[in-house]
TrEMBL record:
This is Glutamine synthetase. It comes from the Bacteria. PROSITE patterns: GLNA_ATP (PS00181), GS_CATALYTIC (PS51987). It comes from Paracoccus isoporae. Belongs to the glutamine synthetase family. It holds the Pfam family Gln-synt_C. Residues 118-452 form the GS catalytic domain. GO terms for molecular function: glutamine synthetase activity. Its cofactor is Mg(2+). GO terms for biological process: glutamine biosynthetic process; polyamine catabolic process. InterPro entries: Gln_synt_N_sf (IPR036651), Gln_synth/guanido_kin_cat_dom (IPR014746), Gln_synth_cat_dom (IPR008146), Gln_synth_gly_rich_site (IPR027303). Keywords: Ligase, Magnesium.
Length: 452
């Protein structure tokens, strides 16, 4: 018998358990890193409870499992109230039994949204647009590497073995034969996505060895962030079925390009349904240029969210297809801000700076925040870059510490994202950065041990 609460779930989730016994429900909250935190419980118990509880300290945990100091001073770990968002219900088709996942809304005990929860941060930024009568639309692109199993962190990452018996090769961008080398993993990704009700707009081979890109159809920012959050898990599970890993590190393999999460942006007038980036005659509207100007002005203060780890900045190096600039250009992939070819109704701006290692909720929120500030400030961008923007001077922070300094000094960015969130995020990331600086790397041992 289908539980009553499932009537509020997407059709794909209902179809997945139709005629079957639902065993378990995973109650999930994305943390600062985008890791799924929460509880798994028998489906029968989930059906009897309307809310659940977790301590607010889950948002103070670093990627290494350590705890950052609470900027508010107190570390009493009060419980937050978790309420299921049934519209996010989706299958976990890799499990041995029939399991569903449900993302939960997070509020305090007075019913107010917890401002440091990443999903709430994105909802807040979207709400700023909606208060102006605008509906932001995004289309994310996900790049990742399939790599050989790596159980020893001291060993370098290497490409996976393909069906030919040879390791995946680099410099095979857009090659269908390269994708076929690990076709069984791709097949499982498709099957899992179909079971979960996700629409894949396309899969292609990128420039790195074993590097894949998945494009998603445009839509609501929160829904798309939910999908990327779920996609990361399903892709990892598909890879594990075939004796390899999927990694979303920004730069997992030395000498290979990094993995980005390009974000396409457009804004719809909620009253007329028109893309505000185009005027009534289909020409570029002033708002289009204002949005770009906001990106150019405020992205340096947002990089700490788009490139959240020390490894993220290894992607920002010349000659590896990662723009290290704030130039904009029409159909110019060397610019950090690209305007793709489109008709007036689909006019959009592509932010090419975000890494795939970012929390999708925070990456999209930060990118939208820059555009929102541009729309409200109504400034014009620099002239369009016509040539090769790769040769432009560096405009972005090149270390996590510098990026956090820029974020801390930006009152507009902190105001849009929320002061409490900005303080917690900075505390977590400075803790991670401090931990990294205490690690001695193989490069240091090789070149400094006997030579200095």
């Amino acid at each position: 018998m289908t539980p009553d609460w499932l009537q509020n779930a997407p059709q794909a989730a209902q179809d997945y358990v139709a005629g079957r016994r639902l065993d378990e429900v995973e109650c999930i909250v994305p943390d600062i890193a985008g890791v799924a935190r929460g509880k798994a419980m028998p489906a029968s118990k989930f059906a009897r409870q309307e809310k659940f509880y977790l301590p607010n300290s889950i948002f103070l945990q670093t990627i290494t499992g350590e705890w950052a100091d609470n900027p508010s001073g107190a570390f009493t770990e009060p419980d937050m109230v978790l309420t299921p968002d049934y519209t996010t219900t989706t299958a976990a088709p890799w499990t041995a039994d029939y399991t569903l996942q449900v993302i939960h809304d997070v509020s305090d005990q007075q019913g107010r949204p917890v401002p440091i929860a990443p999903r709430n941060v994105l909802k807040h930024v979207v709400g700023l647009f909606e208060a102006k009568g605008w509906q932001p639309v995004v289309a994310p692109e996900m790049e990742f590497f399939l790599v050989a199993r790596n159980t020893d962190p001291n060993q370098p990452i290497i490409p996976p073995m393909g069906r030919s018996g040879r390791r995946a090769a680099a410099k095979q961008a857009y090659s269908l034969s390269a994708v076929d080398e690990y076709g069984k993993v791709i097949d499982d990704i498709y099957d899992f996505a179909e079971a979960q009700g996700f629409e894949i707009d396309g899969i292609l081979q990128e420039g790195g060895a074993g590097q894949v890109e998945i494009n998603l159809a445009h839509g609501d920012p929160v829904r798309l962030a939910d999908e990327i959050f779920f996609f990361k898990r399903l892709i990892r599970e598909a890879a594990l079925r075939h004796d390899c890993f999927a990694t979303f590190m920004a730069k997992p393999i030395e000498g290979e390009p990094g993995s980005a999460m390009h974000i396409h942006h457009s804004i719809v007038d909620m009253e007329t349904g028109r893309n505000i980036f185009s005027d009534e005659k289909g020409r570029e509207a002033p708002e289009f240029l204002h949005f770009i100007a906001g990106m150019q002005t405020h992205l340096p203060a947002a990089i700490a969210l788009l490139a959240p780890y020390v490894n993220s900045y290894r992607r920002y190096v010349p000659d590896f297809a990662a723009p290290i600039n704030l130039e904009w250009g029409r159909d110019n992939r060397t610019t950090g801000l690209r305007v793709p070819i489109s008709g007036p109704e689909a006019r959009r701006v592509e932010n090419r700076l975000a890494g795939m290692d970012c929390n999708p909720y925070l990456g999209i929120a930060a990118s939208l925040a820059c555009g929102y500030l541009g729309l409200t400030e109504a400034q014009d961008p620099r002239p369009e870059c016509i040539g090769d923007a790769y040769i432009s001077e560096d405009e972005l922070p090149l270390t996590l510490g510098d990026a956090l300094d820029l974020m801390a000094d930006s009152e507009p960015m902190r105001a849009v994202l929320g002061e409490e969130f900005a303080a917690v995020y900075e505390a977590v990331k400075r803790n991670e950065y401090k931990e990294f600086l205490q690690v001695i790397s193989p490069w240091e041992r090789e070149h400094l041990l006997l030579n200095v």
